[in-house]
Design brief:
By secondary structure, the protein is an all-alpha fold. It has one domain. The chain has 19 helices and no strands. The radius of gyration is 21 Å and the shape is globular.
Length: 378
C-alpha cells in the first residue's frame, strides 16, 4: 500500500483532466447557456464521476457498469424512452401537413452519407481506421439524430464503438441549437427565412389520431420488421396519449417514466466517456463524423425545403426542412427561433413540428433498414 492507492489526484494525467474539462463544459452549457439541460447536466455529471481516478464506477459491479448492462446492452433504455417520447408527441401537425414526411425522409441523408464515409475510411477501401461494416453502419446511424435509435442499432449490430456512438448521438442532439443555425443561415436567404406560412393545415379527426399509431406500427413493422421494437414502442406511447381513456398511463409515460429513464440514461452515457476509451483516433473521428452527419441531415432537409418553397410559390418556408431531423422537439424550436430572427411575426413552430415528428418516424424506418441490410452484406 502507498499513497497512490488512496488519493485519486495522484493518478491524474492529461487524458483524465481533458475528460473532466469536457464534463464541466457540458454542465456549463446546460446551466449557463440552457442548452438542453435535461440531457447535458446528467451526461456532464456522469463524465466527471467516471473520470475521477479510483472511483470504481465503471468497473465490474460499479454503478455505471450495472446501468450499462441493465439498460444499454439489452436495449431496454431506448425502448422505454421511445414509449415516453411517443406519449409526448402530438402527430397532429404532421397529419395536418402530410407533405412534411418528405422533409423527414430527406433529413436522413446524413445516415447513409456518413456510413459510406466511415466504410471508405475503414475496412471497405482505405483501411486507415479500424471500422468494420457494422461499425460504419452504426456510426452512420448518428445521422438519425435520435439517441434511442443510435443505442438500439449499434447494440444490435454489436459495434465495438457503441459507447462512442451513443455519446456522440446524445451530445449532438443536445447541441442542435448550436449546430443547426449557421447551416440554416448559410443555405437560405433572409427573404426565404422571412416567409410566413399558413397557420392552418387540413382538419384531422380524433379517430384519425387514434388510428395513426396503429396503422403506422403495422405498416412499418410489415415493411421493415427490424424496426418493430422501436416503432412499436413509439406508437404505443402515442396511442396512450391519443386514446383519451388512459390518462394516468399517458401521464406516467410522459413524466415519471421519461424522466427516470432520461436521468439514468444521461448518467450512463456520461459514465461511458472514460478517458482511456475516448481519447483515441477512432473515437475522435466518430465525433467528427457525427457533426458531418448532422450537417448533411440539416442541409438535405433545407435543400428539399427550398425546392418545396419554389414549387409552392413561396407558401412553404424552407427553414422547416431543417426540422426534418429526429431531434424532437429541439430542432422545431431552433426553426422557430431562426424564423423569428428574420421576421418577428414569423411563427413556424407548428409547421416545423410536423417535419420534426415526420423525422422521428423516418429515423426509425432508416434504423430498421440498416439492421435489415447490413447482415446481408456482412
Amino acid at each position: 500500500m502507498n499513497l497512490s492507492d488512496f488519493f485519486g489526484f495522484l493518478h491524474l494525467n492529461w487524458q483524465t483532466v481533458t475528460m473532466l474539462a469536457v464534463g464541466g463544459l457540458l454542465i456549463y452549457l446546460g446551466i449557463a447557456k440552457k442548452v438542453e439541460p435535461v440531457l447535458l447536466i446528467p451526461i456532464g455529471v456522469g463524465v466527471l464521476m467516471a473520470n475521477i481516478p479510483l472511483s470504481g464506477l465503471g468497473e465490474e459491479g460499479g454503478l455505471f457498469a450495472l446501468l450499462k448492462r441493465a439498460g444499454i446492452d439489452n436495449e431496454l433504455f431506448p425502448l422505454l424512452i421511445f414509449i415516453g417520447i411517443g406519449a409526448m408527441i402530438d402527430f397532429g401537425p404532421f397529419l395536418e401537413r402530410p407533405y412534411t414526411i418528405f422533409l423527414g425522409a430527406a433529413a436522413q441523408f446524413g445516415i447513409f452519407g456518413t456510413f459510406l464515409l466511415a466504410y471508405f475510411l475503414g475496412d471497405g477501401w482505405l483501411k486507415l481506421l479500424d471500422f468494420s461494416l457494422q461499425d460504419a453502419a452504426s456510426i452512420g446511424i448518428i445521422g438519425s439524430a435520435d439517441g434511442p435509435t443510435s443505442i438500439y442499432v449499434s447494440t444490435v449490430l454489436g459495434s465495438k464503438y457503441a459507447p462512442a456512438i451513443v455519446v456522440a448521438a446524445y451530445s449532438y442532439m443536445a447541441l442542435v441549437p448550436i449546430i443547426q443555425p449557421p447551416i440554416m443561415r448559410l443555405l437560405t436567404t433572409k427573404r426565404e427565412r422571412s416567409l410566413k406560412m399558413s397557420a392552418k393545415g387540413r382538419a384531422v379527426s380524433q379517430r384519425a389520431k387514434i388510428l395513426f399509431p396503429l396503422v403506422t406500427m403495422l405498416l412499418v413493422g410489415l415493411l421493415v420488421p427490424k424496426a418493430t421494437p422501436l416503432i412499436g414502442c413509439l406508437m404505443f406511447g402515442n396511442l396512450l396519449r391519443e386514446s383519451g381513456v388512459v390518462e394516468r398511463l399517458s401521464a406516467a409515460a410522459q413524466n415519471e417514466l421519461a424522466n427516470i429513464v432520461t436521468l439514468l440514461l444521461g448518467l450512463t452515457v456520461g459514465g461511458m466517456m472514460v478517458a482511456a476509451d475516448f481519447l483515441r483516433v477512432e473515437t475522435v473521428t466518430i465525433f467528427v463524423m457525427g457533426i458531418i452527419a448532422f450537417a448533411l441531415d440539416t442541409a438535405a432537409g433545407l435543400l428539399l425545403g427550398k425546392v418545396m418553397c419554389l414549387l409552392s410559390k413561396g407558401k412553404i418556408n424552407p427553414l422547416i426542412g431543417a426540422a426534418g431531423i429526429s431531434a424532437f422537439p429541439m430542432s422545431a424550436r431552433v426553426v422557430q427561433k431562426v424564423g423569428l430572427e428574420a421576421n418577428p411575426h414569423n411563427h413556424l413552430l407548428m409547421q416545423a413540428a410536423g417535419a420534426n415528428t415526420a423525422g422521428q418516424i423516418a429515423s426509425v424506418v432508416a434504423g430498421g433498414a440498416v439492421l435489415t441490410l447490413v447482415p446481408l452484406f456482412g
